[in-house]
Every structure is written in C-alpha cells, then in structure tokens.
Amino acid sequence: MQNNHNIIISQGPVCLKGSVRISGSKNASLPLLAATVLFKNKVVFTNLPHLDDIGTLAALLSSIGSQVEWINDGLTLEHKDKHSLYLDPNMANKIRGSILLLGPILARYGEIRLPMPGGCPIGKRPIDFHIHALEQLGATFIVEEHQIYGVAPAGLKGAYIRFPKPTVTGTENLIMAACLASGITVLENCACDNEIDELIKFLKSGGVSIERNHTTIIIEGKNQFLEAQSPFKIASDRMEAGSLLAACAMTEGHIELKYESCPGLDVVLEHLTDMGMDFSTTPHGLRALVNKPLRARSFITEPHPGFPTDLQAPFMALNCVSHGFSMIEERIWENRFFHAEEFLKMGAQLSIQGSQVSCHGHRTLQGALLTAQDLRGSCALLLMSLVAKGTTIIQKNHHLDRGYEFFINKINMLGGKISRQWCNDKELSEYGIKRSSLVA
Ligand code: EPZ
Fold first, then answer.
1. Which atom of ligand 1 is nearest to the CA of 27?
2. Residue with CA nearest ligand 1 atom 44
C-alpha cells in the first residue's frame, strides 16, 4: 500500500516584494468566541481568521448549544439554552484555546466538565492559576488526568485575586467568569497583552463595566447575561504581521502590510528598526524595506510588553541570516526550541544550551528535509526555506494551518515559490527523501 504524505516544498532563495493583508488575530479570536457563552443574543464577528483552531472552538461551542454560522469574513454565534454540557475530548484535546471555555461555562451554568486542553508541546502548560483563581470566586474543582470537573452551585462571587505570574488565558478566563459573578472582582498581576484589551472592549460593548490599569483589572459583575449591540471587528494578528516582517527582513525585500488596526506591533518594529530595517506608514498600513545588511539582535522573551515568545522562532530564523553574533533566551516556555534543531540541518550556526540559543549569522543556508513540531516553529521553518539555496521540504505542516491564515498563498503572492503536495513514497524518493527519514 502506498503512503501519502502532505508536505510543503519550497524553492529558495527568493526576495519578497508587494502588498499583503494581515488576517484577524487568532489569539484575540479564541477568547472572543468563548465569551459568546455570556451573551443572551446573537453575536457577529467580522475579520475572523479561517483557521483550524478557530473551527475547533466553534465546533465545541456548537456542541453545547451555540448556533454557529460562517458568514463572508466572519461568524455569527447565538448561544441558546444548553442542550448538553458534553465537550468532545477529541476536539478539546486538539487546541489550547478550549481552556477558555472554563470561565464562561462555569459562570453561566454553574458546572463544567472540560477535557484537558491540548495545543503545542512547548512546555508543561499548567492550569493551576486558572483553577486557584476561579476557586477564589467560589467554584470547586476536581482536576483529573484527562478532565477538569468544576461546580459553582451558588454562583460566582466577586473577589480580590492576585496571579502568581502573568497568564494570558488565565487572565481572560477570570475576566469572563467575573462578568457574571455578583459584586466586584479585582485581578492583579494580570497579563496585559493586546488580545486581553480586545476581550475587554468586546465585553464592555455587551454592557459590563471593566477597567484596566496596567496589570490590574477591575470587573463589576452583572447579574444578567450580556447583550451584543453591533458586529465586532477582530483586530489584525500581530504575530502574523511580525512573522511577515521577519520574512521580509530575511529575504532583504520590501513589503506593505495592510491592516486597519494591528495593536501590539511596537516592540517588533523597535526591534527591527534597531537591526537596521526601515519603515514608513501608508494609507493602508505599513511599508517595510531593507536598504542595508541587517545586524542580528539578541533578545529575551518576556510577558507583554516584552518581546513575545510567539515570535521567538521567526526572529531566531532572522538572526540566523543577519550579521553578527546574538543570544536568544526563552523565558516563557521550557521547550520551545524544536525549530533550532531543524535550522541546524540547513547549516545554521547555532548552539542550544538550556533556555538559551547562541547564533552566528550567515547567509549560506541549504535546503533540507525538515519536520515541523509546533505552530510558530513551522512558520520559522518556512521563513528559513525562503533564504536557503535549493529545495526545502517540510513535513507535519498541519501546525501552520492552526494559526496562520492562507500563509503559503500570501508568501507566494509576495514572490515565494512554495507548493503543498500529497506525495507517495516513490514521488518522495524523487526529491531524494527516503521513506525511513519521514516521521509517521
Ligand atoms: C497564551 O498561552 C497564548 N495562547 C500562547 O500562544 C502564548 O505563547 C502565551 O499566552 C504566552 O504569551 C493563546 O492565547 C491561546 P500563559 P497561555 O498562561 O495563556 C505559566 C501560540 O503560538 N503558567 O500566559 O496558555 C506557563 O507555564 C500560543 O499562539 C502557570 O504556571 O500562556 C508559562 O510559563 C502558544 N500556570 C507562563 O505562565 C498556569 O495556570 C505564561 O503562560 C498558567 C500559566
């Protein structure tokens, strides 16, 4: 029997030029979708990205009573009375975003049985902050290996909560739960990413009073469901924008990013400016261009507004082909260097020591057979293929579809030479790949 392998084939080197639209933000969309459980009427989102993770969360919501309808560039969701609170483990395990159902379902129904969320294998990804904080609102939990069972029979009550350290989805879960709690909730040491501001904006439009002052968030709980007023437009994805800027920098190209609103790009723009990249604003967004060889820049990933961990992989790729020595330290996730091992196969000069990678930049990379292991890493492999000489083949590329909308099409529109193919073993051998080197 012939095996079929879905692979990405990229020919390099190329230079990216042209204009590209930035899609709606994945990590803003996930909490917004989960928050619809708190609403009594139909919610309309526009600029929602068509991504596998979004589809999975929408399907989970549909399984517990949301009427979900895909529209032109978005989605409508109307949360009817529950017909079941059963959440399919096969769906919930596929994404990390399913953890975002914990707060809103508990707040609305006083009960939840949530299969353990999945997501990229970039670290242990504990949920203790979510659980302890919701306990302080009055919920009780039994956390088992494969599921979390939570109840709040008397409803949730506002409380003072201080997170041990900033957590993005933990902050989002608590904000959502506190909306239907009685009284005031004060959250301290919160994450303050732009996606949290988007969630606050959406919940405020539904009638809740929420104030954020740096890392403190105050929510005045409502004893009634929220009411959507008008369509909510999702902001553009700063991680996609950052990844495309890294691609432009690596290929020494010039591109225009088109978006209406893409909050949170400042740290990336400052970083790239410091490396020597030039920017100008356009009527549609931002133009980036490389006029001179870029200098590698060291960085440490930190909670917002520090350098985002979700851009560590693409910016490591950039340092691999920029001038000079750099150090990268990953401080958020314990296991987010899969891509670095793959870069070595292309001839990158890297050394991995615990949470740090040191890098000597040079531009003589060679195409290779690579394996994607996580979302941002798979994007970084694709970026490396744009500068490497010859053919790069990336297997296990489904990770990319979880978080980057039409990414290959976009890169090709800018001058990339990338195709996706289903290959059998014989066709693969024509690319010089032996079946034994393929990951099952
Ligand atoms: C969000 O994950 C993002 N996911 C991640 O993006 C992102 O990498 C991460 O925030 C950090 O910016 C979504 O928004 C869906 P955290 P989240 O809770 O919320 C520790 C991507 O590629 N922690 O902010 O799961 C944890 O171990 C994804 O799009 C606890 O110890 O991350 C980590 O060190 C990957 N206990 C730190 O906090 C907890 O209960 C930050 O994690 C929760 C977190």
1. 14
2. 167
